[in-house]
Amino acid sequence: MPKRKLNENDVPEASEPSSPAAEPAAAPSKADEPLNATTSSFSAFGLEPRLLRAIRGQRWASPTHVQEKAIPLALEGKDILARSGTGTGKTAAYLLPILDRILRRKNTPVTSSLILVPTKELAGQVTKLTQSLTAYCGQDVRVQNLASNQSEVVQKAKLAENPDIVVATPARVAANMNNGALSLKALAHLVVDEGDLVLGYGFKEDLDYISQNMPKGVQIFLMSATLSTDLEAVKGLFCRDPVILALDDLEKESQLVKQYVLPCGEDEKFLLIYAMFKLNLIKGKTIVFVGDVDRSYRVKLFLEQFGIKSCVLNSELPLASRLHIVEEFNKNIYNILIASDETELLGARKKDDESRPKKKAKTDEGKPDSGVSRGVDFRNVSCVLNFDMPANYKGYFHRIGRTARAGKSGTAISFVIPKEKYRKHKPTTFAGAENDEEVLRKIEKHQKEGQKIEDWTFDMKRLEPFRYRFADALRAVTRIAVREARVKELRMELAKSQKLSRYFEEHPDELAHLRHDQTLNHPARIQPHLKHVPDYLLPGGKKPQDIGFVSLDKPKTRKFVRGKGKKVVRGRSGKIDPLKTFNARGKGKK
Fold first, then answer.
1. Which residues are within 8 A (CB) of 166 and not within 5 positions of it... i.e. 6 or more apart?
2. By CB atoms within 10 Å of each CB, which of 196, 207, 387, 523 scores lowest?
3. Domains contained in the chain, CATH given
4. Number of C-alpha atoms within 13 angstroms, CB side, residue 314?
5. What is the pLDDT of residues 125-136, one digit of tens each?
6. Residues in CB range of 490: below 8 A, 6 or more apart
7. Packed helices 467-476 and 293-304: angle between N→C axes, nearest 10 degrees
8. Are 114 and 162 in contact (CB under 8 A)?
9. How far does CA 556 lie from the centroid of its chain?
10. pTM (whole model) above 0.70
């Protein structure tokens, strides 16, 4: 180490090295560091230091594939069209470059970035991640979420502060542009997240209006899980020659999923799901996909008969409740989540432009695409159970894409109703099951090379001891019980969401006491004996002990001794008082 001495200003400085070999090599600058597909850390991107500190707080060890490819191109100012599955880091891939630009050119408060999302939940997730990444930026970056249920006056007040980033649905943006609350004159970045869904949910007119009033030179990010015709239409509206990153194919990701199919009767679905969870045939967290909301509560009430807890992700519930359910599920508080594709999970279908599609989203087969399996990031899901098959093969791949993420393995099990067993058990019939075999053939047709759906060889005879219990529980889940359960949970969640929201804002630790897997059955409907499984019912379990011959004759009872147990009480007139006289042998017997 070179010696140090004081200069004429009394400042210590290093002396001349004794030889050229002793001179230390200059540290390479960030600009000299190679940036390629094998980037191992976020620091290689040259992001603003406060963002790097927030990334460390998120415990992101290294960039994902989409982040490695998209962030350098975004920092160069190029338009990007990226296809990548949910949970692969698309949100951070466009947020980090946008936040870096905002922090470096910060001067006057203007709305420079607009993020369009199809649903309220996705808007909440984007806003939350933005706030986490700007945790060390003070007031240098401000973000506003306009997708929540707020009055026009409140939204105007928020936009009057000129937030740097606005997250909203296209309908909300168009409405605020019309009333003059939102101006796009200083817009520098536009993001369309889940681009195929944004157009598919009927926002085409709003997107046209936004594109016509958008200034030139705006950097465009189009993010989606698929490269569909809807996404091509969005691309034509906003950008001409983007860099296309086709990174993750949902069908390719499904190669990490072990896929099984089990043909069964309509009522046998309930018998199988009972056995799977009661005998621990499924390990870890499970998402159970059903056909509609009523079906969700039917399955939940059925499982409650056996003491198996689960929660329903229902689009009718308040936004705060749905977000909390997903968050708690990701924290491993709930292990069984029941969801449906009847309505779009991420945004409740209410009578407003933003959450009800003007035209139903159609796939190439003319059926609605899977809604529950898109947009929300479910973490560490071990198994996807298709209690009811989806309407088309694309919905199937989106569903099973919830498991086997980040290199982990997963399992997908699908119950299929053969044609000859359809409508054979009317209380449990589901109309969508009529085309199960046809959908299964298309799923098998679109499997990648080396990937296939295997038959789940399960001996149904081993479940015979469970049948009487299962039938007893299934009869208790009536239509009236399902309707009452839906109303009961809706009232409970509304009370939590409205009356207690302010309290939980002030006491966030208490939020952990809110549970969404509470019993919805009336106490009279629960049969406690069904909660416990005797050993003799278990496949290969203990057999009932032989207690020998038991006679069918009625056992002899002890004879009543005459004169004992008889009490006679007479009144003043000497007559027997029948109200005070007790005859142990019965009326008229002596």
1. 111, 113, 114, 115, 143, 144, 146, 159, 173, 182
2. 523
3. 49-248 (3.40.50.300), 251-350+358-537 (3.40.50.300)
4. 24
5. 899 999 999 999
6. 316, 317
7. 130
8. no
9. 64
10. no
